[in-house]
Amino acid sequence: MQIQTVQIVAGLVAAIAFIIAFISAGVAVISAVFALIGASAIAWLVYTVAKRMLLHRAERNVTPAA
Q1: What are phi and psi for residue 34, nearest 5 degrees?
Q2: What is the four-CA torsion angle of 51, 54, 59, 61, rounded to 10 degrees?
Q3: What pTM value is reported for the model?
Q4: What pLDDT was estimated at residue 64?
């Protein structure tokens, strides 16, 4: 059986589709990693601000010894 031009073109199109799929999967993984980094940075920022505010409130409410 001889390979026809249509089969060669279909094979090339399939190869290109697989390459594009792998590239987009890699982009999705990298995007997810950066999203996690960003979310953790925001969580750390909220934690440090809340901790500082709570410490400031605790220092303000201390009554001096008589």
Answers
A1: -70, -35
A2: -170
A3: 0.62
A4: 63
What is the helix (H) or strand (E) element at residue 40, kind and residue range? Answer: helix 5-60
Give the pLDDT confidence score for residue 3 in this predicted structure: 77
pLDDT in tens, 15-59: 999 999 999 999 999 999 999 999 999 999 999 999 999 888 777
Query: Which residue has tokens 């594009």?
Result: 20
* Radius of gyration of the chain, Cα coordinates, nearest whole angstrom: 29
Interatomic CA distance for residues 16 and 10, integer angstroms: 10
The residue assigned the tokens 């995007």 is 31
Spatial separation of the C-alpha atoms in residues 24 and 46, rounded to whole Å: 33
